Amino acid sequence: MEFPTYRMRRLRRSETLRAMVRETTLDAADFIYPLFVVPGEGIRVEVTSMPGVFNISVDQLAGEIDELKALGVPAVILFGIPESKDEAGSGAYAEDGIVQRAIRAIKEHDPEFMVVTDVCMCEYTSHGHCGALDEHGCVLNDVTLELLAQTAVSHAEAGADMVAPSDMMDGRVAAIRTALDAEGYADVPIMAYSAKYASAYYGPFRDAADSAPAFGDRRAYQMDPANSDEAIREVSLDILEGADIVMVKPGLAYMDILRRVKDEFGYPTAVYNVSGEYAMVKAAAERGWIDEQRVVLETLTAFKRAGADLIITYHAKDAARWLAEG
Ligand code: PBG
Ligand code: ZN
Predict the structure, then answer these.
(1) Which of 1, 55, 264, 312 has its CA 20 to 30 A from that of 245?
(2) Catalytic position from the list 85, 107, 249, 304
(3) Which residues contact 274 (CB under 8 A, 6 or more apart)?
(4) Strand pairing class (310-313; 269-273)
(5) Taking CB atoms and a 6 Å cutoff, what residues make up the pocket around ligand 1?
(6) Where does the pLDDT of residue 1 fall: very low under 50, low under 70, confident under 90, or very high at 90 and above?
(7) Which atom of ligand 1 approaches the CA of 204 most closely?
(8) Buried b (16+ CB within 10 A) or exposed e, 20-42
C-alpha cells in the first residue's frame, strides 16, 4: 500500500471532521452508578477516600434516582452496609435486608429505573471475606454458592432488574442461574464479575462498604494481576454457566484484558472503574495537578475503545453532566 500524499493531519484540523471520523463515542447511557446504602434515616455521609461519593440511607434514594435520570444515567448498582454483621453474612439474603429495602424503595419511586445489585457476602460477614469460612479461615466454595444463590433470589424478589455476583467463587453463575430459574426469575440477567483481580485499587471501596477482610486477603479467590490467559478461562466458564454480561475489574491497569475478552468472546462486556482509580483522580484534581474533566472523559472513552459496552463508574454523574454540556 502506498500513501504518497496522505497526511494524517487533514482529518484532525476541525472538530467537525474529527467528530465525523471518530471511532468511539461516550454516552451517559453506558454508565452504571454505584450506590452505598446504609441503615438509618436522613443519612448522607461522604466517604473520606472518595470525595463526592456518599453513604446514603434508603429515604435518600428517590432524590438520587431523579438526579441520575435527569442526567441520562440509566442504572445503579447497589451495595449495602447492614445494621450488623455475622459469621454467615445473613444480612445478605434477609428479606428486609438493606439492599432488599433499597430495591423496593427505588422501584416504588420509579419502576422503570434499572436496578442492578452486587451479590457478595463480604459486606455482611463479620470476618469480611466474600464467603463462608471453615475452621481454618479458608473460604468454603460450595457452601458459599448456596448463600449467593439465596441472596440473588432475594434481590430478584425485591425487584432487582439484574444481579451481579462479585465473589469469584467457582460455579456461582451456574448456582445463581439455577436458583433464579427455579424461583421464576428466568428473565433476570446475570452480569458476572468474571475477571476480577485481587487488586490494591479496591481500598477506598472497603472504607465505603466497611468490608475489608479482618485477616488475610482475597488472593485465594480473586485473580493474580500477573495473569491474562486465566482471565479468558474465567470468562469462558462464566459464559458457559450462563452469564449474560461479563466484567473486567479493575479498569485502568486491565485494559489489555478488556480488549482480549471483547475480541475473544464478543459478549456484552462491562468494566468496573473502581474506587482506587476514582480516588487517585480526585486527589490529583483537588491539588490542581490534573484537569479532572479531561482526564475522566479520556479514561472513560478509553474503556469503550478497549472493548467495554458498559462502564460502572463513580464519575458517572460528573461525566454525564460534562457530556451534556458538550
Ligand atoms: C465486593 C466488591 C468489591 C468491589 C465491588 N464489589 C470489593 C472487593 O472485592 O474487595 C470493589 C469496587 C471498587 O473498588 O470500587 N466483593
Ligand atoms: Zn466480596
Answers:
(1) 55
(2) 249
(3) 199, 201, 202, 205, 249, 250, 251
(4) parallel
(5) 118, 120, 122, 130, 166, 202, 205-206, 218, 274-275
(6) low
(7) 14
(8) eeeeeebebebbbbbbbbbeeee
Q: How far is CA 276 from CA 200, 252, 292, 294, 316, in A?
A: 8, 10, 15, 18, 15
Residue with the bigger pLDDT between 214 and 112: it is 112
Residue nearest to atom 10 of ligand 1 (CA): 202
Ligand nearest to the CA of 128: 2
pLDDT in tens, 275-289: 999 999 999 999 999
For the segment 39-57, the average pLDDT, to the nearest whole number, is 97
Give me the chain's average pLDDT, please.
Answer: 96
Q: What letter represents residue 2's amino acid? A: E
The answer to whether 194 and 248 are in contact (CB under 8 A) is yes
CB within 8 Å of 217: residues ≥ 6 apart: 198
* N-term to C-term CA, the chain: 38
**Residue nearest atom 14 of ligand 1, based on CA coordinates:** 202
Helix (H, G, I), strand (E, B) or coil at 128: coil
Asked if residues 35 and 77 have their Cβ atoms less than 8 Å apart, the reply is yes
Residue-level pLDDT at 234: 98
Alpha-helical regions (H) of the chain: 15-21, 61-71, 98-109, 141-158, 172-182, 203-208, 229-241, 255-265, 275-286, 292-305, 316-325
| 249 in active site | yes
Give the integer Cα–Cα distance in Å for 234 and 47: 32
Spatial separation of the C-alpha atoms in residues 114 and 17, rounded to whole Å: 35
243: cell is: 452469564
What is the value of pTM for the model shown? 0.96
Tell how strand 269-273 and strand 245-249 pair up: parallel
Kindly report, residue by residue over 59-112, the tens digit of the pLDDT: 999 999 999 999 999 999 999 999 999 999 999 999 999 999 999 999 999 999
Percentage of the chain surpassing pLDDT 90? 91
* Interval 5-17: pLDDT, tens: 777 888 888 999 9
Pick the closest to residue 198 from 190, 188, 206 (CA basis). Answer: 206
